[in-house]
Specification:
Structural class: alpha+beta
Number of helices: 16
Number of domains: 5
Strand content: 15-25%
CATH architecture of the largest domain: 2-Layer Sandwich
CATH topology of the largest domain: Nucleotidyltransferase, domain 5
Shape: elongated
CATH superfamily of the largest domain: Ribonuclease H-like superfamily/Ribonuclease H
Distance between the termini: 141 Å
Largest sheet: 5 strands, mixed
CATH class of the largest domain: Alpha Beta
Helix content: 25-40%
């Protein structure tokens, strides 16, 4: 360790004897090497020199004298099979339990150390200071800046790839603050987008959004890119992503190939993420909506009147103009049967002779309690079958928590039907020829009725 000390043994007389310049430098600082308490760390050349001398037959003392090293240092060096540069052990930090969260959240808040510190204290029980967080964010921000300078935008050809993602935003639907989930699909070449709002992100919503997007574009791309949402991928198996079986069947039905982003590499699908931000920042502000249907009606008009005809910041062209070229490369989907309508759903009939479909409940004949039925959507109706026979049909209910019950499915309807089945037919009570009812009616004098009503009164008076 190199330190600076001041000489205190040189007298002024001695300096004067050497001349005036020596007097002026009497208080000068000179470097002095003091042995550090830690064992010195050898550089790579010194390490190689120690091993070369050892291979030549030198003993520890000879190597230490020759290289002016401590014998303990030489012994430690000889025990190392290869040279390792010195690394100071990292000191423990209050941020250590939050490193993974910090790296992920920093991107979302644009590397704001102040926001991260506030969220750490409020949500994760962090007791450290703002300075600790600020120092931890510096290398993250630097790494992101370096990656932004070195990464190259990945462009795809017409009809090759589309990117899909969800975005969430809270709006007023009929005066009630409601979170709307917006599905966005962006074509990679033309940057033309499609957006549709839902109240949730369930599997039926995802599939319905895809089919609506295919209808909007008039076709589909060869590859569709997703992040690792649960409705698309369930996890990994032997290091490979495992697709959700329903979504895998959907992709096979329509003939496209799903592709997944690398974990923690959200910029891979930057086109659609920009599309989600564009919907949130350009479409939503200043608007009010009666309900979800009104939201989607206004969204469709905005896409046609604004989004499709703007000058895109990357392509410097209108998406609708570039789409004219991309449309020819899309695989046509017109006339292709709907997967949602062809998909058979297995349901078990509950004790209340109802089956649950997409959050709503529909009745079936009560004799099917505990049995399995198959549900298929045909247009705007659910068709429910048991052993291949249709047992119920119901109009598709909107929203969730709704109930559709047909009285004929209940136990009371069975008893009523039995009475009607085993009672005498109404035609058996009538004769085969018309009757002249006028001959069967006796015509009486009204005085007779007066006498009948008067008799009880007389008895009561007596």
């Amino acid at each position: 360790m190199e330190v600076e000390v001041r000489s205190s043994v040189i007298s002024h007389d001695g300096c004067a004897a050497q001349g005036p310049r020596a007097l002026g430098s009497a208080a000068a600082t000179v470097p002095v090497f003091i042995q550090d308490t830690e064992a010195p760390v050898l550089g790579q050349q010194q390490w190689e020199a120690v091993h070369e001398r050892r291979a030549a037959g030198y003993n520890l003392s000879a190597i230490a004298r020759d290289l002016q090293l401590d014998r303990k240092t030489v012994r430690s060096c000889l025990q190392q099979e290869s040279w390792q540069p010195y690394q100071r052990a990292a000191a423990a930090s209050l941020l250590d339990p939050h490193r993974a969260w910090l790296a992920e959240r920093a991107v979302e808040v644009n590397y704001s150390a102040r926001i991260l510190w506030q969220e750490l204290r409020a949500q994760r029980g962090f007791a450290g200071s703002y300075v600790i967080v600020r120092r931890a964010v510096v290398p993250l921000r630097l790494a992101a800046s370096t990656a932004a300078l070195t990464q190259r935008r990945f462009e795809t050809g017409p009809g090759e790839q589309a990117q899909c993602d969800w975005g969430q935003i809270t709006v007023s639907l009929g005066g009630v603050r409601t979170e709307v989930h917006i599905f966005v699909m962006t074509l990679g070449y033309s940057r033309r987008g499609f957006a549709l709002g839902f109240l949730r992100e369930r599997m039926p919503d995802l599939l319905a959004a895809h089919e609506a997007a295919f209808a909007h574009f008039g076709g589909r791309c060869e590859f569709l890119l997703y992040d690792r949402m649960r409705t698309v991928v369930l996890g990994t198996h032997q290091g490979r992503p495992r697709l959700n079986p329903t979504f895998s069947s959907f992709a096979g039905h329509w003939g496209f190939t799903p592709r997944l982003c690398q974990p923690y590499r959200a910029q891979t699908k930057g086109k659609v993420e920009s599309g989600v931000k564009y919907v949130k920042r350009n479409f939503v502000p200043g608007r009010t909506f009666l309900d979800l249907e009104d939201f989607n009606d206004q969204l469709a008009a905005w896409q046609t009147d604004v989004a499709d005809v703007r000058i895109h910041g990357t392509t410097h062209q209108r998406p609708i103009d570039r789409f004219a070229e991309e449309a020819r490369a899309l695989t046509p989907t017109a006339g292709h049967p709907s997967f949602l309508q062809a998909m058979v759903r297995e349901r078990r009939v509950a004790e209340d002779w109802l089956v649950s479909i997409d959050g709503n409940r529909y009745s079936v004949p009560f004799v099917l309690i505990g049995k399995s039925v198959q549900v298929v959507r045909q247009g705007g109706a659910w068709v429910i079958r048991h052993l291949g026979a249709v047992v119920a049909e119901h109009p598709v209910l909107a929203g969730r928590g709704q109930l559709s019950v047909q009285p004929a499915h209940g136990p009371g309807a069975v008893a009523r039907n039995a009475r009607q089945r085993f009672s005498a037919p109404r035609t058996a009570l009538t004769t085969s020829r018309p009757q002249d009812l006028s001959r069967d009616v006796e015509v009486r004098d009204p005085a007779i009725y007066e006498q009948l009503f008067a008799a009880p009164l007389v008895e009561a008076a007596t």
